[in-house]
Structures are given as structure tokens and as C-alpha cells.
Specification:
There is one protein chain. With 476 residues, the chain is an alpha+beta fold. The protein has 4 domains: 2-102 and 258-288, no CATH class; 111-251, YojJ-like (1; 291-382, Beta Complex (RNA Polymerase Alpha Subunit, Chain A, domain 2), CATH 2.170.120; 384-475, RNA Polymerase Alpha Subunit, Chain A, domain 2. The chain has helices at 2-10, 13-33, 37-57, 61-81, 83-90, 95-99, 111-123, 154-160, 200-211, 240-251, 257-289, 327-331, 421-425; strands at 128-132, 146-151, 171-175, 178-184, 215-219, 226-230, 233-237, 291-303, 310-314, 318-326, 339-343, 350-355, 361-362, 368-373, 376-382, 384-396, 403-411, 414-420, 430-436, 444-449, 458-459, 466-475. A hairpin with a 2-residue loop joins strand 6 and strand 7 (233-237).
Length: 476
């Protein structure tokens, strides 16, 4: 429940758009390729991809690598092997048919016309081959066909297979209510167990049926018998009622045409819902589900400071952010995408404490903040002033017992310092860096640096952060 609540709390409109775009793209693939071998292979690749994701999550390195290679190879195979089927699907009249067209129209095969034509040819002993394609593409198996694309009628069927017609020896391919191609040459079966009574037409019908899911209706020229061939099944048909039954079963025709349309719409709706749920689940696994933890050290940025005040000190320069998200998202985080900002617009002079929360932190989409370490930062602000202070050497150690430091001259002997008013009010002298007395043996000169403590103090005016020291040493 916590994960589900986190999902709805952190989801953005970009995430919803992302899911909808991918879902629609996959739905269009379903609409365009459903019922084809391409669709079945795409579904198989989808399952391989899910298996590869699970293997990666379980740490199966070799299996993950192998699955990635298989998926990449399969994608290439689809394009090469099914190029004709893909071309047929994408040969639309306009781009709208590809992007958003969903055809609900079902062109019925006129079963009664075909039945009447077949038995008329059987009565006259006119040999014929009628091919009713299924889901498999026939283009690479049939040859020498003549494009026809005529509306099917009894007179047309009889004229095509009339003995004096040049294309009567070939097969006619029927799709819907049209004869799309005539005179086609079908591949011959090489089976050795066929009856001797089977002629070339029988072997052609069996040859195509062995390689595709098409239904072939054959009329024998010698005997006038009507035969249906599908797969490895050869069946002699005794009457027109039996032929009508076979045609209706294999061409998807039902007396309840309205019911078919309703089922077609329902299948599209169910497919759309399934695709949406799949994409949403995949997105969730990327951005939330297969969660990866990471810790980033992020510098603190102080914003909206009063220009009349100086940031004297802060207890932290950076904080550790404990983040979670999908492994891919975590690995893609760039430093400029993560910010920690403290708003100083309401800060007062002196010590200010701030608790760092999610409101102070900018994260890339899909990344969730878990904890901040440490969660509190102390910031000291003050109004800067300028103060002129005397300089003094910070001596350390001792001179040799037989030596005396007789005099010391500083140039300059005063310095202008800029810093917070509260700090400078408590300072009366500025010291140099430490100078070791035990290293001095004779009189001389040296240049040393001014030690400004705390570090928020700065040298102001024409002053420099170094001074010259002249010292005189004599023996006791």
C-alpha cells in the first residue's frame, strides 16, 4: 500500500503522457498486425524481454546478456523474414489509416455464390482451384498470377475457369468478396503416399495447404468431384450444404454478423486495456518498482541573502542525500540535476538554524528522496563593518639563553579589516602567522602573512595581507 500511495503521490503529468504515448504506439501495432505471424513473433519477443528484465533483476549476468543478443537478432529476423507481410500491412491509402484508423467493417465472402459456382463447374466437369487465404501470406509461395480485383460473381468464376480462358489452369485467390488474383501457380506437394488418382490440381492444392493455413476448394475435371484441402486434411464434399458449412467455418462467416462486430470491438477494448496495464507496469518497474538506493554528496547553495548582511559561517558545506528510484534513472543522474538550496530571505543577524526538507531539494523526475544527513544546518549572518586595528607579531618558542630581542619594527603596523560587526567588536589586535623565536640567531628582516581569524574576516582598503618585520638581536 505504501508503494502504491508513493506511486500516485509522485507521478507527474509527464509520466502519464509517457505511458499513454507508448501504450498507443503498441496498440497501433496490435491493430495493424493482429492475426499475422509478425504479431505472434512480436509477442514472443515481448516475453523474452520480460524474461531478460527478470534475469537482470536477479543478477543472472550471462542469461541477461544472452537474452539481449537474442532479442536484437530476432528484431532483425522480423524485418528480413516478414518484410512482405509488413509491407502489405503498411500499404495504406493515407497515414491516418496507420496512425488512428480502426476498421470495423467486415467484408463477407459470398458463400452462396461460391457454392453455386463450384457445383455448376462440377456439373459441367470444369476443373478449378479456389484459394481462400488464412492468416499466412501467400505472396512468396504462389507464382505467375494475374491481378484481377473483381467483385465475385457466379458468371465471373465460370468465365475464369472456362477451358478457353488462358488462365483457367491456374488457381484463383479469393479475399472477402473479391477475386484478387487468377492464373496463379501453386507449389506442388512432394508426398509419395498420395493416391494415383490425384492429378496436378490435387498436388497443387496439397502443396499450398502444407505450407500455409489457406483453404483450397478443388473441382476435378475428370470426375467432377468437389474436394476441400486444408493442412494435411483432404475431404471430398458431397453436397452444397456441406460446402457452405466448410466455407463459413474457414472464412469466419456467421449468421450473427452483428455479434461478430460486437466481439471485434470488445477484443480491441480488452487489448487496449491489457496494453495500458502492461506499459504502466513496465514504467512502474523502471521508475519505482525495481528500486535502487544511492547516496549523493550535494553542496548547499544559499539563496536570497540580504545584501546588507554577510554569511559569516555555516556548519555544513554539503549534505548527503539518500535517494531511491529505478536503476536506470539512478545511473543517469547528473550533478546539475540535484540541488540543495537554503532560502535566507528571513534570516536574522546571528545564528540561524534550518531543517533541510524535500522543499529545499531539486531532484530529477522519478527519483525519490529518502533521508538527508545531516538534516540541520546552522548559518551565521552579520552586518559587515570596517575597522582599523593594530598588528602584532605572534611569537612562539624562545630565543637562545645568551640572546635578547632588543627591538621589533612592523611595516605597516596597522591593518584595515572588513567583517561582521559582532566579530570585530570583540577583536582589538590582529596577529601575524606564528614566528618561531628559536630559529632567530642574528638581527634581520622577514615578511610574514597576517592571520585573519575567523576566516570570514577580509583585508579592506589599501591594506595588504603581508607585513615586513625588522628585528634587532644582541647578546647578553
Amino acid at each position: 500500500m505504501n508503494m502504491l500511495a508513493s506511486f500516485f503521490t509522485n507521478i507527474r503529468w509527464q509520466d502519464i503522457l509517457d505511458i499513454l504515448v507508448v501504450s498507443y504506439f503498441l496498440f497501433r501495432l496490435y491493430v495493424l498486425f493482429r492475426g499475422t505471424y509478425v504479431f505472434r513473433v512480436i509477442v514472443g519477443i515481448g516475453f523474452l524481454w520480460i524474461f531478460q528484465r527478470i534475469a537482470g533483476y536477479m543478477g543472472l549476468i550471462v542469461t541477461t546478456w544472452a537474452m539481449q543478443g537474442i532479442i536484437a537478432f530476432a528484431a532483425i529476423i522480423i524485418i528480413i523474414v516478414f518484410r512482405n507481410e509488413i509491407r502489405n500491412v503498411l500499404q495504406a491509402k493515407n497515414i491516418g489509416a496507420i496512425l488512428w484508423g480502426v476498421s470495423h467493417k467486415m467484408v463477407q465472402t459470398p458463400v452462396e455464390i461460391i457454392t453455386g459456382s463450384v457445383y455448376e463447374m462440377a456439373k459441367r466437369r470444369i476443373g478449378s482451384l479456389l484459394v481462400f487465404p488464412g492468416k499466412d501470406v501467400l505472396e512468396e509461395l504462389v507464382q505467375s498470377g494475374v491481378p484481377w480485383k473483381g467483385v465475385l460473381s457466379k458468371e465471373m468464376v465460370l468465365s475464369i475457369f472456362w477451358p478457353d480462358n488462358p488462365v483457367h489452369d491456374g488457381a484463383a485467390i479469393i479475399q472477402g468478396d473479391q477475386i484478387v488474383e487468377v492464373g496463379t501457380v501453386l507449389p506442388l506437394s512432394r508426398r509419395s503416399d498420395l493416391p494415383s488418382s490425384y492429378g496436378t490440381r490435387h498436388r497443387a492444392a496439397l502443396g499450398l495447404a502444407e505450407k500455409t493455413d489457406a483453404l483450397i476448394i478443388l473441382v476435378s475435371e475428370e470426375s467432377g468431384t468437389v474436394v476441400s484441402v486444408k493442412g494435411d486434411q483432404v475431404k471430398e464434399i458431397n453436397n452444397n450444404i456441406e460446402l457452405e458449412k466448410i466455407l463459413r467455418a474457414n472464412t469466419g462467416i456467421s449468421s450473427d454478423y452483428k455479434g461478430l462486430r460486437e466481439r471485434d470491438k470488445l477484443s480491441l477494448v480488452l487489448a487496449a486495456m491489457a496494453i495500458f496495464m502492461f506499459v504502466a507496469g513496465t514504467w512502474f518497474s523502471f521508475s519505482r518498482g525495481l528500486e535502487t538506493l544511492a547516496t549523493l554528496a550535494v553542496p548547499i547553495e544559499y539563496m536570497n541573502r540580504d545584501p546588507n548582511m554577510e554569511l559569516i559561517s555555516s556548519s555544513l558545506n554539503s549534505v548527503n542525500l539518500n535517494l531511491s528510484g529505478g536503476g536506470t534513472l539512478i545511473k543517469s543522474i547528473r550533478s546539475e540535476q540535484v540541488k540543495v538550496r537554503i532560502d535566507l530571505s528571513k534570516a536574522v543577524i546571528g545564528l540561524n538554524s534550518y531543517t533541510i526538507t524535500a522543499e529545499n531539494i531539486t531532484l530529477p523526475p522519478g527519483i525519490v528522496l529518502r533521508t538527508v544527513d545531516p538534516p540541520v544546518v546552522d548559518v551565521t549572518l552579520d552586518i559587515p563593518i570596517v575597522k582599523d586595528l593594530p598588528l602584532q607579531v605572534d611569537w612562539t618558542g624562545k630565543l637562545a639563553e645568551n640572546l635578547i630581542l632588543e627591538s621589533v619594527d612592523l611595516e605597516p603596523d596597522r591593518i584595515t579589516v572588513v567583517g561582521g560587526s559582532k566579530i570585530l567588536e570583540a577583536i582589538s589586535t590582529i596577529y601575524t602567522e606564528k614566528v618561531a623565536l628559536d630559529s632567530l640567531k642574528t638581527s634581520g628582516n622577514m615578511t610574514v602573512k597576517v592571520a585573519l581569524t575567523p576566516a570570514s574576516l577580509k583585508v579592506g582598503g589599501d591594506s595588504k595581507d603581508r607585513l615586513d618585520i625588522s628585528y634587532v638581536i644582541r647578546k647578553r
